[in-house]
Structure formats: structure tokens, C-alpha cells
Amino acid sequence: xxxxxxxxxxxxxxxxxxxxxxxxxxxxxxxxxxxxxxxxxxxxxxxxxxxxxxxxxxxxxxxxxxxxxxxxxxxxxxxxxxxxxxxxxxxxxxxxxxxxxxxxxxxxxxxxxxxxxxxxxxxxxxxxxxxxxxxxxxxxxxxxxxxxxxxxxxxxxxxxxxxxxxxxxxxxxxxxxxxxxxxxxxxxxxxxxxxxxxxxxxxxxxxxxxxxxxxxxxxxxxxxxxxxxxxxxxxxxxxxxxxxxxxxxxxxxxxxxxxxxxxxxxxxxxxxxxxxxxxxxxxxxxxxxxxxxxxxxxxxxxxxxxxxxxxxxxxxxxxxxxxxxxxxxxxxxxxxxxxxxxxxxxxxxxxxxxxxxxxxxxxxxxxxxxxxxxxxxxxxxxxxxxxxxxxxx
Length: 393
Known about the structure:
By secondary structure, the protein is mainly alpha-helical. The chain has 17 helices and no strands. It has one domain: MetI-like fold (Orthogonal Bundle), CATH 1.10.3720.10. About 65% of the residues lie in helices and about 0% in strands. α2 crosses α13 and α6 packs across α7. It is globular, with a radius of gyration of 33 Å. It holds the Pfam family BPD_transp_1. Keywords: Cell membrane, Membrane, Transmembrane, Transmembrane helix, Transport. InterPro entries: BP-dependent_transpt_permease, MetI-like, MetI-like_sf, OppC_N.
């Protein structure tokens, strides 16, 4: 038991409180924003958050275990015997979701596409957060001409349509030809450039608001360095809304990646599976009644965007006290047995120790029999009437 987890107040020489754990340390997993929000969410907000988490985790598991789940490779066009897959084949036992016009297995490419999407999202979000948060801290804290220049650049980038800017960056980075990692990096960096201004503007606004706070001024007085003030005091208190922006941008990144692939600026089909490219190749199939080549990649895009959006909207509602749903006043948390009191139940050892110490530290006050206040309060109505009658006589 450390000094921080035990109460040391008591009678000198009395060590009975040393074994009472009054400040239990919070587990690390309860400090995660989503876990903390799950505990306070109620009603439809909790339903949205749980549904979004289930869908998102499902696609993450698909991405992790794609080699075990998918029966074929993303670019495989022949089976183990060397026979080529039929083109535009309807769903069957061998190809449960059918095949494409190029002879690819739709089910396998849809599963492998989850891995491509998750990797591109992680790269885009990590780079966007790193660059946007760093630039926002510098711009908000130093101000002056640095702030003006960065704000103008961010506003100029933010004014461009996101998909158009991503296409431009993809052409500049990959030249229109993308392999596996070069295509993923090109898509990730293209999406990064689009979303840096959002993180920059959010962090800058928070830093400008809190940089003149009392605790920041106190840190300057004691001689804290600029780097320590920015990272220790400003960064920790200006990133509260980042989880919300992160989740919402992740869903937008999926759509941007699919848009790049649909327009032909994404990843080559032989390098990786990408849902946008598969949708592009299935446009002609739909008019011919071949629905399976477009339905399953499109459904995958809709579901993963829906899951991430539900998580983001739930976090946004829970972060705003005005939108957060609250438990009703009459709602009881726990069972009746946990909240009721049994008068015949013997008190626990902990309660006995606390009661004994309380009586030792705060003994009951003694009052003399001639205390005027006590005597006056103990008079009955008949006593007062008799006294008044005697006075009149």
C-alpha cells in the first residue's frame, strides 16, 4: 500500500486505516475514450455506439485474418489444378459470390479489400494527426506571421474539393500507376493532405483559447521550456475532440479511397484488392443483369462507412453535455439487494473500523441538565400553558 492509496488521518499511533484501500487505481483500459463513453452512454446513443463498434471490429478482423478467410488470393485467376476461373459466373459452391469479368473471385477480393482499406485509413489518419496537430500547436502558440501564413495555406487547401485534391496528389505521387505499397502510400498521402487542415484548425482554436490560462502562465513563471509547455500543458488539453474527428475522417477516407479507385487513380488490381476499382469494372455488368460483381463490394463500402460513422456520431453526442442522453432520476443502477439495507445484518469489518475511529475522533457532546436551551426545548405545551396561567394569577 503506497502513500497515495491509503488514508493517513487518524489518532496518533493508530494504524488501523493502513489496510483500507480508499483510492483504487483506475485500470488503463478504462481510460480509453471509447471504453469510458460506453460506461456513460445510455439509450439509443449506447445502441449506436455498440452497433458501430461491432461493425468496425468485424471489418478489422476481416483485414487481419483475410488470408485465412478468403479461399483465393486477390489476384488469383486459376484454381489449384491450373484451370482458369469462369468469367462473370453466378454465385455457386466454388465461388459463393460469383466471379468478375476479369475472372477474379468476388468473395476473395471483397475480403482482401478490407485489408487495403484499413491500411490506407491507418496511414492517412496517423499522418494527418501528426502533421495537423504539430502545425496547430505551433500556429496557435506563437501566433504572429507564422500563424497568418499557416492559416492562409490551410484555408486554401480546405477550399479545394477533397476528391479533386486527392486525384491531383495521386497523379503527382504515383504518376497514375500504383503497386501495392506505392498505391497504398499514394492513396494515404493524398487523403492526408485533404484532412490536415481539419486537425490544424481544431488544435489551433483550442491552443489560442487556453494558452493564456493560469496554469500555462504558472509554467512560464517557474521556467518551463517552450517545448514542455506545448507538449505537457497545451497538447493534453487541446485534443479532447480528436477522437470524434478521427472517426468521422476515417469514414470519409474510405469514400475518398473508393472514389480514387473508381476513377482509375487507385491501386492496380494485380497489386491489391480495392473496392472502388471493383465497382468501376462492374458498371457494365449491372446493365447486363450481372448484379453480384457490384453488390458485394458496394455493400462492404456502405457497411464500413456506416460503422465508423455511428461510432463518430456517438462520440460527438457524448462529448457534448447538451446532446448527451442521461439516465432518468428514478432509474436504479444495480439490483435491489445491492441497494437495500438489512437492519439485522452484521456490519462489515471495514464499517466497524470506520465507526470506531469516528467515535474516537468525534466524541458525542455532553450537555448539562441546567442548559437553558435544552430545558426550553423539552417543555411541553401543557407546561407553557400552566406557566402562563400561573403568571396571570
